[in-house]
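Suppose a colleague, Dr. K., hands you the sequence of a protein chain of 493 amino acids and asks what its three-dimensional shape might be. Before reaching for any lab equipment, you can write down a predicted structure in token form. Begin with the sequence itself:
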Amino acid sequence: MNNLIILPIVIPFLAGIILIFFNKNIKAQKLISAFASLLAIVVSVMIVHTVHVNGIQSLAIGNWEAPYGIVLVADMYASLLVLTTSIIGLTALLFAFSSITPDREKFYFYPVVQFLLLGVTGAFLTGDIFNLFVFFEVMLMSSYMLIVLGSSKIQLRESIKYILVNIISSALFVIAVAYLYAVTGTLNMADLSVKIADMGQTGLLTVIAILFLVIFGLKGAIFPLYFWLPGSYQAPPAVITALFGALLTKVGIYSITRVYTLIFYHEPSYTHQILAWLAALTIIFGAIGAIAYWDIKKIIIYNIITAVGVILFGIAANTPNGVEGSIYYLVHDMIIKGALFFIVGAIIAITGTSNLRKFSGLISSHPLLGWMFFISTLSLAGIPPLSGFIGKLKIIQGGFEAEEYTIAFVVLLSSLLVLYSVMKIFINGFWGEPTNEDVYKDKSVKGLILPIAILLILSIAYGFGVESISPYITQATDTLLDPTIYIQAVLKE
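The predicted structure, expressed as tokens, is then:
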């Protein structure tokens, strides 16, 4: 039992409550938020180290042992995602300090961000599938408030679609959990794995597995369930879009990965094959959307969808290289999407628009921002030796090992399409003949550069430091490929 693993949940929970009482004092809110996020990073680093040295850590709440009580479980996969979430949370707050408007700050922006981080970290750490639903709801309720904060016309319009989709998926989630409990008599993930292995994955359980794929696919935005995402993520300010793009879809990906490697892994010729082709279609339609638009925010948003497909194909391939590549790429994508949305926010702050046709030559007035964007695009596309390369390479290798040659080629082709879509922003927006250069020079983005620089440095270090990071990723991969490691750590069998 390790009480350390509950702290990433407790810290944002307490911070969110305390911040509510300081809603009139914005300076105090900023200080408390920053301190809480720094503390969460320190604790997350300690958890990663503890799991690496001592193996999977579990905590039975109220000393009710699994499978009867609520259990928190920190394996290396969850621990790495919790650490990345903490880093994204801190950088988002730093960006918000210089970009979020006072009318949003005074309406509980900072407490809601903490509750959002609570929901995300809780979803990663829970060992119970019903409590996964609970943490999903905490995360979603926070996102509902963030998406409408400011009450602009586009926010209110898109929030209706966003809320309706998530209400439907949440209702389906409860139904799926009820069916699973009726069949197996348990909701603990480790115990579910044991029960389903003993009874065999029957046709009914396979149907439940596909239902979970639909539910998490809605939340993770896989084809054809991504229809709600582009409009909903475009509506709020860039810092909120960065939180959503870097974290919310990743919780859906994590959930699919967890249930398809721990619970429903007995019929991969059916379940994983469906996942593989859905991943391929997600990549294709995400790339088409990114190429089609001239709105810089929409281009990056559609690249979220492409990345979702790439990550899930590695899980669907179900080979050591495929799963390892998915973990590498998932962590990379969280970091680089955060950086790119922050850069987009800085561009909008300078130009007053996200329409690529309305500005050019931005690099002459803001060269640092331009070259930061250039490096981010190379990393996003998976150009070696930056962070996106190793993950995509291993996913393609995993696809070849699984004899999914067509989809592996789609993943390979997606790198070129992604590079084209984001280079369009660099060539047309940063390069070319400067427009309104004198006006743009007067627009300072000094406070916005730091969070972008932090994430970009991490992305570069992640790419160049693969050898140092590799033991942690390998440990996470071993747990996903061998469910008995997770089961023994939780059930102590």
